[in-house]
Structures are given as C-alpha cells and as structure tokens.
Amino acid sequence: MQETIIEFQSVSKRYGNHHAVQDLDLQITKGEIFGLLGPNGAGKTTTMFMILGLIEPTQGQINVMGRSPYRSAIHVKREIGYLADTIGFYEQMSAKDNLSFIARLNQVPSQHLDRRVEDLLDLVGLSNVANKKAGTYSRGMKQRLGIAQALIKRPQILIMDEPTLGLDPRGVEELLNLVQQLNQQYGMTVIISSHQLDQVQKICDRVGIFVHGKLQAIGSIKELSEQLSLQLGHNCIIKWHKEATVDTEALDGLLRSRFASSQTSWEQNSLSITTTEYLTPQLVAWCSSQGLPIMQVQSNELTLQEIYGKYFENEKSRTKSTAV
Ligand code: ATP
C-alpha cells in the first residue's frame, strides 16, 4: 500500500480577504516526484511554505509524516530539505567550506562531517571543483551545490522552488537527472515547483495545477490528459498500409454503429476518429478485428504544456469576463 507522507485537509491561507491558497485537499505519497504548477501568484510558494511550517494555515490541517509542520516545527524541518529559487553562498569560500559550514549549522556530528560533505559533493557531481570558490560557480553548479546543501541533514523530503530557472538546456537535464537519481536510489519524496512544463513532464509522477490559490487539476500526465480529453474530445489516427484494399464506406458504417459518439474522417490510408472519451485501445482492437492492416496508431495524448495552457486560458477568460 502507498504511504501518504504529506496531507492537506481543507487547507486555506488568507491574507486579509485574499485567498493565497483555498480549500486545498492534497495527499503526496512517499517516494513520488510531485510537480506544483501554476502561473505567478497561484499559491505554489505558500503551499510549500506551509509544508515547511514557515506559514501557518488560516484553516484546515496539514500533516507531514503524521505531524503538524507548524506545531512540530523542529521535527518536521529535520525531515525536509529545501532549495529556494534564489540561493546564497559565501562567494569567497569554496564549495566544500560552504557545505561544511551548513553541516555544522545543522549539527552534523563532527566525526561524520567531512565524509558527509565529500559524499554529497560526489553525489551532485562537484567533487573535482570542491575547492573552487562558490562565487566562480555557474548557475547550474550553484543549483547542484544548493541540492547538496538541502540534503546535508539527510531529509526524507526534498522541496525545490523553480530549480531549473536560468539554467541552459544541458544544466536543466543534469539537474533533473540528479533529482531522478535521488528519487530512485534513496526513495526520496520530491516536490518541485516549476514553470518549465515540458521538463517537469519528464520526471514527475503526478502534477497539481494551481490557479489563483485553487488546485484545478491533479494526476499523472496521462490522467490529466484523459480528464481533459473528456472536455475536448479525444482524437486517434489509425494508419494502414497504403497498398491494402480497404472498403472504407462499409467500415465507416460499422464503426459508427459500434462507437455511436464517434466522428470519423477517412483519408487514403488513414482514419481519424474523435470520441468524447478515451477509446484508443478499443478502437484499435475493433479495427484489427475487422481486418484493417494497421501500420501505425497516433493517439493525441496532450502534453502538459497543452493541458496547462488550457487551464490557464480558461482562467484568463474567466478573469477577463469578471473585469468586464
Ligand atoms: P510565483 O510563481 O510568482 O512565486 P506562487 O504561485 O508561488 O507565485 P505565492 O507566492 O504563493 O504564489 O502567492 C500567492 C498569492 O498570495 C499571491 O497573490 C501573493 O501576492 C499573495 N501573498 C503571498 N504572500 C503574501 C503576504 N505575505 N502578504 C500578502 N499577500 C501575500
């Protein structure tokens, strides 16, 4: 059974009359990579800060490993590593000295300190530049040093605020590979907030899309895509060998009687079907049972970018019509 490590129950955070987060119900499973997505001001940082116990909810309950992060602040903070969107290091000190300093602040026992610092520098791929001043590090190297810093107390949960911001494509890839490695090797639960949707899509098990403090959608990319397909219609293109003889007219009649809600369009050697629900496996099985020599199936699983755009678009038009 999957173990819940973080739980929000009807949580709201208000500033005066403004809801930064509203009625949030959310469960994060131990060992998953969860993406917090949303435009500026959506409530992502507030949500992360409530997990960290830095902000107290106005209403509702939060549990992190069975405790309230606000009331059991010290205990909960011990279990969470946090990488802020802007990280500061002592620029004149080496990466190793910066990390040792943080280790002492976190009360890492002195007999373990050197070893832990070395292991972490190795883990984040900075061993060979450990004695260079942090001020000479690139943004990508600083992010990796930031991760090492967040891991110094050996937390079970890692929270990262916009970690890929300002990184070049290679830096992004290296950082995300590292996050995945931490998750897979150590079973670490990772919460990552990002605007870089195409990247998040690659590594997150599930994502939550926030708009104006409300969690609008939650699930794996596949689940979100399917949910939205219900609203948008789901399209599937089936192609067959161009030399095959297919009686498209006869098949069209049969297909419509079997899948009543479908809209079909037949080309020379392809069929495009739009249905209100996700029926690709059934459609493919049916076409195959009718003797269609299928060469290729293209299912329009939406990218996270499209899903996100859709929610964001709806929200923008809602705000516009309210303003009018
Ligand atoms: P960004 O991507 O820009 O960091 P976000 O999704 O992290 O945005 P939050 O920082 O959580 O959003 O802010 C949510 C809302 O709450 C915003 O409208 C913000 O202006 C408001 N807010 C946050 N902190 C405070 C505060 N201390 N006082 C008043 N309003 C606040």
Automatic annotation (TrEMBL):
Entry-linked PROSITE patterns: ABC_TRANSPORTER_2
Domain ABC transporter: 6-237
Gene3D superfamilies: P-loop containing nucleotide triphosphate hydrolases
GO molecular function: ATP binding
InterPro entries: AAA+_ATPase, ABC_transporter-like_ATP-bd, P-loop_NTPase
Keyword terms: ATP-binding, Nucleotide-binding, Transport
UniProt key word ATP-binding: yes
Pfam families: ABC_tran
Domain of life: Bacteria
Stated family: Belongs to the ABC transporter superfamily.
Name used for this protein in its record: ABC transporter ATP-binding protein
Species whose genome carries this gene: Sphingobacterium hotanense
